[in-house]
């Protein structure tokens, strides 16, 4: 897996996470005006290894 950092058509910074088979498995979902902010978004995702999974299809009590 690798993170790709790039500029979109509007000149904003974005990232995407690409699997070894070339498929994009996640992306930033928004453009960033500054490269540093985009890199911070990547760092947040990389640091979320212990994030819990919430099944949103279950009814809330």
TrEMBL record:
Gene3D superfamilies: YegP-like (3.30.160.160). Pfam families: DUF1508. SUPFAM superfamilies: YegP-like. Residues 10-55 form the DUF1508 domain. InterPro entries: DUF1508 (IPR010879), YegP-like_sf (IPR036913). This is DUF1508 domain-containing protein.
